[in-house]
Amino acid sequence: MTEGTQLIRGLEGVVAAETKLCDLDGKNGRLAYCGYDIDDLARRATFEEVAYLLWQGELPNKSELAKFSAELIAARRIPGELIQAFALMPKQADPMRALQAAVAVLGMHDPDARDNSHAANRRKAARLTSQMATAVCAHHRVRSGHEPVEPSSDLPHAANFLYMLTGQKPTDVTARAFDACLTLYAEHELNASTFTTRCITSTNSDMHSAVAGGVGALKGPLHGGAGEAVMRTLMEIGEVANVDAFTEKALVDKRRFMGMGHRVYKAGDPRAAILKGMAEEACRQSGQFKWYEMAVKLHARINEAKKLIPNVDFYSAPLFYSLGIPVDLFTPVIAAGRIAGWTANIVEQFDDNRLIRPRGDYIGPSRRTFKTVDKR
Ligand SMILES: CC(C)(COP(=O)(O)OP(=O)(O)OC[C@H]1O[C@@H](n2cnc3c(N)ncnc32)[C@H](O)[C@@H]1OP(=O)(O)O)[C@@H](O)C(=O)NCCC(=O)NCCS
Fold this sequence. Notes:
Elements: E1 22-25, E2 30-33, E3 36-37, H1 38-44, H2 47-56, H3 62-74, H4 80-88, H5 95-109, H6 118-143, H7 157-166, H8 172-185, H9 192-202, H10 207-218, H11 226-237, H12 243-252, H13 270-285, H14 289-306, H15 312-322, H16 330-351
Antiparallel strand pairs: 1-2, 2-3
Helix pairs in contact: 1-8, 2-16, 4-6, 5-6, 5-10, 6-7, 6-16, 7-8, 8-13, 8-16, 9-10, 9-16, 10-16, 11-15, 12-14, 13-14, 13-15
This protein binds coenzyme A (COA).
């Protein structure tokens, strides 16, 4: 190979790691975590079971799950200094920025901060998963002028998240839908944010630094930020009757349709199909069916015009909205699910590490003579 001449834009199709975590079959639109189909996991397992699966490689039995759930519950509290830091942040700050800062602060307080062993990383993964949920909710409460809600010591992870966000215990149906969303977002192979966490890990940095980087990558609208952008698009459209006119104009303007298209899935994203059904039910139950109808119509029009498929972020937007999640918390919620996969990838990378260091293909001027500033 000639040095620096193998350019693959966007690293499309490049295999950059071996993984036992995620089996993504883009051609056939199939996805499995550690061998279990995503449909089974989303419908029949809890987020706790899925996190355990990603970290241990096996689903837990009853007593393993009870012990693991207790570990997650015990890790829910965040340092008071972090809550003080939230109070000092600008009220208008993007919650993803606050989350990125929160992860860095949690790293400063973590008892295993300097330990990159497998056992310490496994402990940090559990702590970060619980604490990130608490941090997202506490930051939202503080910026809204409310006291943070103390984490519950008995609710499951998903129900506790909604409880900490609103101060109200969610219904079983709402908690179940939210739990399935966390599972659907938990892991997705070498997406941009997970790849970021692996790059940072590959320098032998540490889990919190890697996750803070992952949060930054997830924030972008071509990645996790697409969900929020979908909801803003639906709000811009306003009514089902406006979808056709909106789509025609957007096509003329060559607008990028958020939540549509995918680098790997070309036939369909299996997560979107599950989320579509959940969005239909949740929008109907919350009396906000128009968002679902609008999304279905928009999906059909874009698909007719551009053959694009909806990705995970398309139907999660009306679903999250009807579950009462504030629009600018959609991406932090995705991070609260993806943390399970990020940390599993970080552990996998640490356990079999080689520095990730690709090349750039230099296309600037050829070598030239340097002149000092007074001669230029
Ligand atoms: C996800 C995404 C970044 C993948 O993109 P990619 O594999 O890099 O594909 P490209 O951006 O190179 O697009 C390839 C072609 O499809 C078009 N395309 C892809 N996604 C599109 C979209 N959402 N809206 C309009 N056109 C789109 C591009 O304009 C391009 O057309 P061209 O070849 O005529 O220029 C892209 O589909 C996208 O931007 N989607 C919207 C953001 C989103 O939902 N992100 C969440 C992903 S889970």
